[in-house]
From TrEMBL:
Organism encoding this protein: Rhodopirellula maiorica SM1
Hydrolase in keyword set: yes
Name the UniProt record assigns to this protein: Sulfatase family protein
CDD domains referenced in this protein's UniProt entry, alphabetically: sulfatase_like (cd16034)
The keyword Protein transport appears for this protein: no
Length: 502
């Protein structure tokens, strides 16, 4: 019995059908990319200092040849649920993979499976994180449309990879021969970013004469913040300062309270220097892949996507990593070059989320999305056939079957509901550092009600007990409507139950 995929019938596909190459990083702050800095005012573009930047010419070139989405968000800013939504177009709580290390349901149909059924050669290299707790777990048995998944591993942020007689494995190992995250003796052939990029190049060369879809999932710049030479010292002399909001963590809303190691976090410039090094290494490898497409004369018929699964606060609000709706955590890069489909130098400011990616990609390719898809098709906005609606919202949620917070976002405002805090409204135009709750500003009342109504309509479409009773009450209070979220939970004990139901 096949699981996670379907037998391919006799399907013919035009050889000139667009190829698809997706490069996805992990825990990537969008401000490290030149293309995004150009869309921001200086105080937002240079949060670590006026000269504390990474040059990313290869990644930026994708934006120049296609579209840059300035308000693209992780539907749930944690690895597994964000990826679950990205590949399927289904909200994470409906995929089985609603929290880290929870596996996809067998019946999930990804965009890769749609393309595989249509005759595309498909493959994947790098971190997957949708097959449960296995680590590294090379080549998961459930392929979900990625027919060549020899170099897919389920979990881990490995730095040193190699091909042994038995197949791919982690090259850095301890005295008991167990894999570890050390860089070790990794070089330009064995450092994870380089090694995985080479697997993408190999696949592209092998399938240059047929339509292909390849997904390269790079585990950097997720921690540990270490990188091979010369990137480990490339930014060692750079003056890097803490972001403006770093010392203001005590003023964070309860949903972003600094706990654990973040509670006493001290600014360490070397951590950011190595983070920048990882980003520069990624950019150089993107350049290598783009050069391969040029060499094989595939650039003009390949849709190239550069994105990430979620962000990294990188000391904003006194925090590292992700998991909350702040911009540094939830906003992600989304660059798409699609020659002949998306006009060059296009900018889209309308808010979208990772759940919108699969239906959008399939529509750009002229394919029908599966009936299970709930994400929006943004292809009309990206191609310019449909006018962007800056009041249209993206809805984000925390991980889990019963989210502890929701965020409703458009191009200017972000309304956050949480079980631990009264609603917060950020005016990203007047308060880009997200320091002030503007929910009581008179001029904002219309947008608050509109966003609350959007969330009410969203949760009403979900299963009973999906929304916590505290968030349900907040919606009712804001809307003055006893009908808000009628299917909400009313039992706090039941509402706090986040078991996975597997």
């Amino acid at each position: 019995m096949l699981i996670g995929t379907v037998l391919l019938c006799n399907v013919s596909i035009a050889k000139d059908s667009p190829n698809v190459l997706i490069i996805q990083t992990d825990e990537h702050n969008f401000r490290t990319l030149g293309a995004y800095r150009e869309t921001l005012p200086p105080d937002q573009a240079f949060v670590w200092g006026d000269d504390a930047v990474v040059q990313t010419p290869s990644i930026d070139s994708i934006a120049n040849r296609g579209v840059i989405c300035t308000s693209f968000y992780a539907t749930s800013p944690v690895c597994t649920p964000s990826r679950a939504a990205f590949f399927s177009g289904v909200p994470p709580h409906k995929t089985g993979a609603h929290s880290n290390d929870q596996p996809y349901r067998n019946d999930i149909v990804t965009f890769a499976e749609v393309l595989r059924r249509d005759g595309y050669s498909t493959g994947y290299a790098g971190k997957w994180h949708l097959d449960g707790p296995g680590k590294p777990q090379w080549a998961p048995k459930r392929q979900f449309g990625f027919a060549d998944n020899r170099f897919m591993f389920n979990r881990g942020h490995w730095k040193n990879l190699e091909i042994a007689d038995s197949g791919p494995r982690v090259g850095s190992r301890n005295q008991k021969d167990a894999p570890n995250y050390n860089v070790g003796d990794a070089n330009e052939q064995t450092y994870a970013t380089d090694w995985l990029a080479d697997r993408a190049v190999d696949f592209i060369r092998e399938h240059a004469n047929e339509p292909f879809c390849y997904h390269l999932s790079i585990p950097d710049p997720h921690g540990p913040n270490t990188v091979r030479a010369p990137y480990d010292t490339m930014f060692a002399d750079m003056a890097i300062r803490p972001p403006l909001s770093f010392s203001m963590s005590r003023e964070n809303p309860a949903w972003a309270a600094a706990t654990g190691r973040n509670a006493s976090l001290k600014f360490n410039p070397s951590l950011m220097q190595h983070y920048f090094g990882m980003v520069r290494c990624i950019d150089d490898n993107v350049g290598k892949i783009l050069n391969t497409l040029d060499e094989l004369q595939l650039t003009d018929r390949t849709v190239i996507v550069f994105t990430s699964d979620h962000g990294d606060l990188c000391y904003e609000h006194g925090r590292l990593n992700k998991g909350n709706p702040y911009e540094g955590s939830a906003k992600i890069p989304m660059l798409i070059a699609a020659p002949g489909i998306i006009p060059p130098a296009t900018r889209v400011d309308q808010a979208f989320g990772t759940v919108d990616f699969a239906p959008t990609l399939l529509a750009l390719l002229g394919k029908q999305a599966p009936e299970s898809v709930e994400g929006r098709d943004a292809s009309g906005v990206l191609t310019g056939k449909t006018q962007s609606d800056l009041d249209e919202v993206a809805i984000l949620q925390s991980s889990g079957l019963k989210p502890s917070w929701f965020a409703v976002i458009n191009d200017r405002f972000k309304l956050v509901f949480s079980v631990s805090e009264q609603p917060w409204l950020f005016d990203l135009e007047k308060d880009p550092h997200e320091l002030k709750n503007s929910i009581d500003v008179t001029d904002n009342q219309k947008v608050v009600r509109s966003m609350a109504a959007a969330l009410r309509d969203y949760v009403a479409k979900q299963d009973v007990n999906f929304v916590h009773s505290k968030i349900d009450q907040q919606l009712r209070d804001l809307l003055g409507d006893d009908a808000a979220a009628d299917d909400a939970a009313t039992d706090d004990a039941a509402a706090d139950d986040t078991t996975d139901g597997q």
